[in-house]
Amino acid sequence: MDSSKIAGAVVIGRNEGARLERCLASLRGQFHAIVYVDSGSTDNSIVAAQAAGAYVINLDMGKPFTAARARNAGFKHLLHNHNIQFVQFIDGDCEMREGWLDAALSFLSQNPVVAVACGRRRERHPDASVYNQLCDIEWNTPVGKAKACGGDALMRVEALAAVSGFDPSLIAGEEPELCVRLRAKGWEIWRIDQEMTWHDADISKFSQWWSRTKRAGFAYAEGAAMHGALPERHWVKETIRALFWGIFTPLLTIGLTISVSSWFVFLLLAYPTQVAKIAVKNGEHNSPWLVAIFYTLAKFPEAAGVLKYWANNLSQKKPEIIEYK
Fold first, then answer.
1. What is the reported pLDDT for 168?
2. Which of 81, 148, 153, 86 is nearest to 121 (CA)?
3. Global pTM?
4. What are phi and psi of 102, to 5 degrees?
């Protein structure tokens, strides 16, 4: 199958520098067309993309930026200017792995009910920080039929056009939300057993990890508000967990401490117990106890993200993107 005739690529980024150059180099010669959508870069990203042969779209920064809006802009250009059947979305801080495109195209061609194929995204430097290690674990989703994909995925143009692409208003969680709508139309999402991309999170500070995790909590709350009803119950469980561990349990512990109730001792043990439970469950990972501590700690920024969504919704304030780089 000649991918250069039936597939296009959409790359999004801002100030990715050398990472973008590596990303574009990994795509060279494999696609009918490559579109790079830039979101206000101040480095040489646009020049680098043009030099790599990509068609460049400068996203109108007069409107609120979202990754979803950037992906839609690239997809729209491909849809209107090129006769393709599949589109590969990839973030500018990622590199496509050798063999991915052929494997994904073959899978989609053999399975016409599948709208999205994704594979194993790996962190390029998982040992550089515990935060990068956490990202690498996050990317390791089960192989098989899935509910959602991430930012890197090969999608069927027919399916994506049928649901009008990504929701441009979402500041996070746009890929899972898209997959909810695709599955509602009868399409399937699959994670195949194939190396897909390298990713460079480049998270070295606790504050970066906190912001990224807070953004996840915001996405949980918004996703639950949009698709939380039966039968989907999209991200309802994740939202409840964030609120239970990040707000309800600590507030109840403080309240019982003030009232001099002995029950606060049992609540104080809840977090160590939760850490131990997660560590045992994730024993196959390196440093399972450290991972468990951060998984438990994550409920606090996630809860902050949930509250931020609710506050924005009540005040009818337009959400602003939560960045961590």
1. 95
2. 153
3. 0.92
4. -60, -45
